[in-house]
């Protein structure tokens, strides 16, 4: 296939897309339902049991049957030969061959026995029994079956959950509904209020898989974990992805220390690519969504611009299915080599109009480890404060210049202010004694720990307020849901906030027995103000708070500018800024408007054949502006940068499917063949201005120097795919899939190798408990195994040269080659082979469940850069060479330890272990640097640190300056008693191999208590913050030896003699700060991640208010660090979401949140 012939031309966009989707959705809602004859049926069955016939009827026309299983199983098989017959004819034919009678009520058919009806003729005067059936949430259950036990009498609930039937007083009524536990009550004259609890086993039997296909879990040959929307909403988070932490085995969730506006990093079953993306593909209602990260923190600082998944409102989520194995995600091809997360949004249902309102409010407070800083010694150097140092300088001047000693006070008064400012970043002064001394701003104040509450005084209490309103309903022909959400987040950083608005519309319509249409559209509007600066010291308010000496109250900096209009600094160092000036005078803002939507139509030619088509896309328009104001210490003239990004993707898809069963359901087949075309685009225009002409007027165009740039890219993938699923007796399953992707990025003139790749998979499952008579305490036992191959897509423009413009000559721009990597015509996607075997079991009447998986994932042909001669003018050439290996285990244990009429305890434990290893980089390269720390560079005296990939080592190891040690591992000290450096060595591993989540919920009548404990074990982190705090004397670890010197524990330079030389404390700790090894910590943690205590009000209390449900819950998140061993900072405080994890540098403090959720339904 020639991709070039079918690709759309550059510049073609889909601007009418949003309006088109909205028009379709509204048009479907307005469709007029029209009178039709009873839905026609085509049934050719011979000697088939009645239950199987009911299943076929339900599949064809959607009618539901309610019956007693024991009654049906006693009936003989039936034979039918009907073509386009009405339902009534089919039911009459069944009735003639059996002892069954039928009663239709709306979309439900009640089935009872003629024999039992005769045997149970009324012996007592019947009474009218009335009642209402509701879920535990308080919502009315429509269509629940009410059956008088042992009789043919029954009915179903109406749109409000109400029912009425005739029964003898004292007779037992059985109430049942799919997905809920059956309830039995005695008939009486008082109205019955029946509350049904969800059947955890039944609700868990069907999950959403690839392409949005719903499947029974028992039919799957791979591991899929589904998280319900209610679990994601129990304790809300700003970024939907971070809410998965601790909830899914095999999923490693990370979030940089960037506050509520930050991005997230999700890794499923380990990192598979050395340089490429390792995050999963996100699918929303069958449409792949863009998860672009718009900027993150690097070596020299920056801001976290957020990502794509953070735009999604959790209140719109019905479920999230995590497809972990290669087989699970194989149908998505090259884009799902790292797994996929399939999001299904809420939809309307048949019934009266329902209105739901949700209000959530949380208050966040910092969790700062203040005791890890020292508060005993103030600003100064070598044990002297500013005045003591000024005294020494003044005496020297008196001696050198011949001034009279009477000048001493005058000289001290003149010298002290400058010294106080210069040394305010160093806290190696004298002990705080309360005496009045000169401070950094030239004012005398008591020499006390006045800055002990600096973090509390500077950061504000953050809060999050969300309001969501949804209206849903529908008829048997059309169902709809429209929802609006308003989310407002005020971060702990002053003057920093985010506003997000979501509007979603979902419509589905069954136009006739053949055609069904579904459409959805989601609009997201985001407005962010002052995302926090992170990483490096410049423009990072967090860093200044750490740097301030113990005797400096941060509130003295609130005036922000000095008398000349310049930034008012706390020290003489321009790179340590005023935190209030950074928060209020610096300005960055961004806005994002986004539309995600799709329309889908399915036509059922016959009960077995169908054709489904879908078109959808994700469009994002983002604008941002960043202003460094005039007067900023590090950039006096100021600067401005503005950017506009328009990016997104579209997908068109068609599937032809066939499903059938044979030999009385002995065999069944489910197969489909599909086609997909996908296009992505990214257009960015940037303008920059340097130096403002008029201070105070800071806008683009008012600069001394201006520049601009534009970049564009687009790519396409065409695909065909298919699946064949075979089953035998619903106990043996075989699934085969295949997908072939054609890449525009690999279609280049002169290229000899193929521009496409094929991804197959095979999986099988065997339900042992269906094949053999198992002990009664083992109701379910299944084994499964699968193999799959997937790949990682190649980015556009890697096969050819790209060009750009640089500075001008004679008024004309100069063109140049815009890349430093040699293009490679033979480049191809990486390939990932994944294997897994698993065991699923349930015990003790389904009270205990086990889901165990062992997997292996091998990546080959990963894209890496190999070295070339510097004479070529290039830095390297991009080739397929890298190999990465992952293997591990996942375990999910579920249990219902206690279950009574009024009390239920549900418990779940998930555990995973992943071992990774870099197998190969290139023939000539065995290691390369993935990330470099700020420390150790550009005048920083702390130790250098790097994240490396090294052959034979785990993915992403931490390397840095080490202690020099003797053969016994003892630290060696030089003649001055200072620790010696041992060179760059491996110091830790950046990725935690173990993850664990432990959740529990307790339900007693209307009360619910739930909590989640989340843990990561085994990863390491290099803390630049801790290193700097040693260098500047702020760390509590620098207290020992302040008065008498520090005696290092170890040996002298000869490697044998014990060290007996005491070193000056300031010199010792500054030397220690230069050794990276000291500041690499075990990042393991155990946290109380979520806690919720709620109450659902009884119907009898709220019915008078017109409500169908009302619940209120007190919630908390990150309430308690049960265990962590990292001083000063949170062990999760990563620098960014890139592959180079394992660094921390002056991020936002961790917070705990407490609030409430209010949910009302009408």
Percentage beta strand = over 45%
- CATH homologous superfamily of the domain at 39-198? Carboxypeptidase-like, regulatory domain
Q: Per CATH, what is the topology of the domain at 39-198?
A: Immunoglobulin-like
Shape: elongated
Given the structure, what is the number of helices?
17
Q: What is the CATH class designation of the domain at 39-198?
A: Mainly Beta
Biggest sheet descriptor: 22 strands, antiparallel, barrel
| Mean pLDDT reading | 89
CATH architecture type of the domain at 39-198: Sandwich
Assembly type: single chain
β-strand number: 61
Structural class category: mainly beta
Helix content: 10-25%
Rg from alpha-carbon coordinates: 34 Å
Roughly how many Å apart are the termini? 56 Å
As residue ranges, the low-confidence spans are 1-17, 23-38, 118-122
GO cellular component, one term: cell outer membrane
GO molecular function: siderophore uptake transmembrane transporter activity
Protein name: SusC/RagA family TonB-linked outer membrane protein
Keywords: Cell outer membrane, Membrane, Signal, Transmembrane, Transmembrane beta strand, Transport
